[in-house]
Structure formats: C-alpha cells, structure tokens
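Dear U.,

For the methods section draft, I wanted the exact inputs and outputs in one place so we can describe them consistently. I've listed the two proteins in the order they'll appear in the manuscript figures. Please don't edit the token lines directly; just add comments below if something needs changing.

First protein:
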Amino acid sequence: MPLFFSDNLRAALECLLFVAGGPVSVDSLAACLGVKPGDVDELAAELQELYAREERGLQIRAVAGGYQMCTRPEFASYCEALLRPELPALSRAALETLAIIAYRQPVTRTEMEYIRGVKVDGVLNTLISRGLVQEVGRKEAPGRPILYGTTPKFLEFFGLKDLKELPPLEDVAASQENSREAGGRGSIPGHPGEE
C-alpha cells in the first residue's frame, strides 16, 4: 500500500493515540489533525501498516468508533510480567446482567429483573460505577422508567469495534448448552472465567 500522507501527520496521529491512553473518536482525531474523518482512517491504516512491516510491539486498533494504540496480543505476557495488573473480575450475576443490557438495549431495570428473575439494583450500580453501563433515556411508558445501555468502555473492555461484533444470541445459547452437556456450568463466550 503506497503511503499518501506526510510523516508529520502519521507522527502526529501516533502522538495523539499515545497520550490518549484509550480509544479516541475519528471526529476528535480529525479536528486535532486538521483533516477529514476519512483521512484519519487512511492515516491509521498507514500507521498500522508501518507497525506491522517493522514488527513493532504496538498496533493501532479500531475500537468503539475510533482508534486506540495498544500492544500486540503476542506480547501480552511481557506486559503482564511488568505490570501484574489486578483487574477486578465481574461476578456471574454482573456478566448475566451486562449480557441482557448489551443484547436488549435500551432496556429498563424491570425488564432486566424479569429476564433474570431476581433484583438487579446492586449489580446494575456496580456496572454503572465501572463505566460499562449508563442511563440512555426514559421509556415512553407509565412512570417513564430509566433506560440503560452499554458505554464505549464496554466495547473497549470486551475488545469490540461496535455492538455488531457481539456473537449472535443463537451462538451464545448453543455455547451455554454445549458447556452444560460437557459437565460445565456454562460461561459467556470470550470470557476467561468466572469469579
């Protein structure tokens, strides 16, 4: 792929993604760089191509409607050895509630409780405090209950570009059934384990 942009613009994009520490929207990057949003996509592709060609330890990923600089997965063990992160795990109840929100959003607390068969107040507050879920409006129904949906941090947490990358519900149900038949308790696909 031929390079169309100057080294300065690619370097500027690299700097912005480095200092951001998380996903940055295409519109924000375009405004900072003084280019069109489509140019940001091209710049990111060029930068990623350079990283791949030079076998760097970093990559540029499309995440949550923008771009993020992150380490390549094959070097994760080195990063873990240095940082020894203690990521707070989500309980099974939190994962179940989060799955309901992700697949049915916007959804009310009452709808979540109906599906789960138990109260979700504590779990919902945990998901909100971790920035994975947010209020997204009010339902046009008596009492105007609050509607909840996922956040860009949810996409980042699960490494998704957008909600379309969620596995189809049929695949999730089949995975749960296969796990139970094999004697397991079932788990959410893409999750390393449970609490």
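Second protein (the one for the lower panel):
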Amino acid sequence: MPESIAFVTLHVRPCAQAVPLGSASVAASLPDDIKNRTVQVELFLDQDLGQMVAAVMRTGASLVALSIYVWSHRPMVALAAELRKRCPELIVVAGGPEVTAAPQTFRDTGLFDTLVCGEGEEVILQIVDAADRHNALEPLYRNSGPIDLLHQVSPWLDGSLVPGEGVLWEVSRGCPFRCSFCFDARGDHGVRTMAFSRLEQELALFVKHRVSQVWVLDSTFNYPAERGKKLLRLIKRVAPHLHFHLEAKIEFIDEELAQLLSEIHCSVQIGLQSANPDVVRHVHRHFDAELFQEKIALLHFAEVTYGIDLMYGLPGDDEAGMRHSLEFVLQLQPNHIDLFPLAVLPGTELYHQHSQYGLHAESEPPYRLLCSDSMTEDAMKHCRDLAVWTDVFYNTGRAMGYFLDVCQAVNQSGVAMIEAFGHWLLATRGMTTEVLADDTLASDQVVAWQKAFFHTWLAENGHENLAGAIDDLISFHACWAQAQLEEDVPQPDCTDLSEKVLVEQQSWRWVDQVRIQRFHYNINDWLLIDGDLVEQAEYGEQSGSMAVFFRSDNQAQCVTIDGIDASRFPTGADVPSYDALLLLGAVVDGDDYLHWLDQAVDYGLLSAAVPEAR
C-alpha cells in the first residue's frame, strides 16, 4: 500500500470559497485505514512552481492525486512534470472536470500513471489497491454509471474537511437541462440528490463552527420546485443566520419560493445569458421576456438579493445583441450583473459544433471565444470593455439603487451611460481596461469616480441643474449599501455617562458601525418623493442636511441630525460638546438638536469620548 496519498487542489486565490471539496469527497470514500494515510494539499495560483513542488514533496506521499479544473490545467501539468522529474517512482493520478472532458490531452503528455474520468469516489479504491499490489494501473478509470449519492460519506461529517469562514455545500449532482455550452450534466441528464438527513447534519455542523457563508453547489437548486422549497425550509429551521449563495432557474420561481428566500439570508444568481430568444435557442435554452420580468418582480417584491448572468459570444449573437441584453438586465435593477465571454469547453456539445457556427476559441484554458461568424474580434473586445466597465460602475460602485433614476432624468440608456463612464475613466484617470479588470477596487474609490464623472458629464450635456441632486442620490445609496454590510450597532454602554454629567456637556464619538454623510438637499425629501431627480432639483430644499447610516435588527437605517447647520457640523469621527458646536455655529435649534442627541445616545450611535491624557 502507498505510504501516504496526497490529494492536491490548486485554488485561484485564498478566500472563503477555497475549499478542496472535490478531492476531499474522494478521500472520504476510502476505508478508514487508508483514509488515515491521506493528506489534502492546497495550492494557489500566485505560488511559483518550486513552492508547489515543495508543498507536495513535504507530504512524503508515494501516490499523488491531482484535481484539475479549467483554471488549474496548465500549472497542474507543469507540477506533474516537475514531480515526475524529481521522483520518477511517484504514482501520479489526474482527475477532475478537465480530465473528464479531454482525457486524451492528458494521456498525450505521458506524465500520468492513470486518469480518472467522471466521479472518483468508487474508482479511487481500485487505484490504491492496484498500487498496493504493485499491479499495473489501467490507463483510465471510469465509473460504469453515476454513483449512488445516498450512500456516499460526507467529507464534512467524517472530518476530512473542517468548516471555516466559508464552505462549499454539495446538495446534488447533475443537471436536468442540456445547455450546449455547459459541462454540468456530464452526459447524465438528471439530478441526483444527497440524503436529506446528511444535509441536515452538515448544516448543524456549519452552525456549530460558526460558518458565515455557504456556497450551494447545485446549478438549479429550485428544480424540481418542491425540492428547492424543502431545502429552503431546512435552512430556515437549522441555519437561518448563515448567508447562502444559490443558483436558480427563473422558470421555477414562484411566489412561495420567493417568500421562502426572503426568510433566510441569501443571494440568488439567475442565468439569463442572452435576452435574444433566437440566440439562446441555439444552445437549447428558452427566453420569454415577459415571463422573466414577472419572475424577477417576485424577487423584487420579496426583497431578495439577486444577480443576473450574461454571456457574450453565443452562436448567432453580436455586439448589438449583447448591448440589448445588458440594457434589458439594467432595467430590472438586479443587485449584481455578471458579464463574461463564451468559453468553448472541451467535452461540451458546442465544442463539437464549433465549425457549424464558426467558433474560434483559445486552444488552452480558459478556452475563451476569440471570434465567430457573428462576432468579430473587435466586437469581442468591445463587449469585454463594456463588461469590465459594468462591473466597476454597477457592481463595485453599487449603482443599482440610483442608476435608472439618473438615466431617466437625463434621457440616456443605461448602456450608453456606462460606456460614457468607461471612456471618461480611461481618458481622465490613466487607467486601462486590463488594469480595471485585474485590479481590486474599493467601493469608495468607484463612488468618488462616479461623482466626478457625473459632474463633468452633466456640465457637458446641459444638465448642471441636476448635479447636486445626483451627487446626493449617489451618496445616499452608497451609504445605504455600506450600512447593509456592517454589523448591527452595539447596545449602548450605560456607564458611558456619569450621572453628574449632562448630555450637552459631553463630547462624543460615533461608534465604528456608523457612517455619516453631508447632503446638498434636505435628505428627508428623498424619502418623501422616492428619489425623483427632476422634482428634487426643482423643488427640493437646498439648505443641506446631515444623515447617519447604520444597521439595527439586521436592517439598514438612515436618520437625519436635527437642529443643525449641516455645512458647519463636523464630519469626522468626533462630535464636539453642545457648547463647542454653538461656538462653531453648527446648531440652529438647540432643543431639536439636544432631543436628537438624547435619542442617538440611547440608540447606541454615539459613545462618550474619553479625554486624552495630558
């Protein structure tokens, strides 16, 4: 028997989603005496080859099993080559989606003793047994059919994996649909589910370990619809405070499902891909604009956080079609929009149909489309630029709450406005699309860019009268979005105030969870007229205001500071005493301000400032 077995996974980057679930599931299927000899090796793309080799060699393993995905294909092959060079007697096995899709590609390298196509839980013991007996390994191992998930060992429950901040939660395998660009069904056009008792135990374990985020590995959790509802009821009962990331099929969303989603912490991703019925028909999908809008409205009404996926480069699609699809999605006001190019994945139906549609794609991972009969290389570049600008402006800039209001006020399409922002960014900030795509931008930075862009654009296009209102609208939604991400404000400390110290004599400090913002207009007007920009600009009170944003009882809150001159009130972390504010001219109505201050202290928004030692 091999002295030890190293299961190697290469992650994109260290993050909550970096969990070696695939290899751990295979390891968990082994008998205990062999399982105790296994070790999980986790690598990352930013490591050099020498670091990766050293990490594997330190295990002293005589059998190394590599899980290979699109992002890890090339570095894993390089790792296998270096391991083979340094340790010729080492048994090197490769499996995973890339191997399953194109086993001959890996066989031709001559680097692997054997390959695993498909699920590895039932064949791994055959490989280990052959190695134990020093028998020759078969060149390729493949299951005779889909494995029975009801009797598979959970890597979470058997201790192969220990829950951390985030977990990957596999609730099923397979897919009932057959989108020609996707490899998810893997020839098995059906869904196999995990035992419900197992799912309940795993959820309880996640709660015990105080997991914060759960990525549900099920490409269509709500099919059949009752299965999805049953899963949501389980989540609500066992782990209602964890945040779940789900993928859903729009056709199977109904009012009951939307309500169940609203009762847990979750975000839902909807795969649209294209708003052109003829385009999606090429890839065995269906699109009904009216039905899609009706289903999205259910999520809106239930206040469910959701995102929409779009794919550019599908057969028959062109640049104009991609712009149409994006405009359709922008009008729906999703919380997040993902735009990405078609990848012509080996093993998919579309891969075998590439000549039919003139698809020219990268020959190596990630297999992105370069051009097609309907999409030129220049068009693909323009689509990529628009995808990056949308991600920066709409997603990172958290523009969902205000963007349609602005576009309607200035009579511009959403796509045209995002393009204008992108061109402005490249021209004025010394940025390139490549840098924007690779850089990790802070939301506050993008919000500052949004304000500067609109200041310029409005002046150039005759809408200067809207500048203050749009600036306020951007600020409001940026602060509101940040408040939703914060922890609840803590309960006030009753010892903050001495009984002998009056509130007005005390200096204060905002608690960390609070964000304050100065506005051009009276922010209460926004709440009354629902953000109508033209009406706000024409009739709004331009006396200015100051508002406090925070979260309480898991809900974002906004309250204005009463009785002050917002232009003179300090915006820093410290709030001077009442007497000091009077000297600054920041108080215009003492009774109103002191009443507000009492409430803010009682609510825990302010804590007593501690005098600095002298």
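Candidate sentences for the figure legend, describing the second protein: DSSP finds 25 helices and 22 strands in the chain. The two ends are 71 Å apart (CA to CA).

Thanks,
Y.
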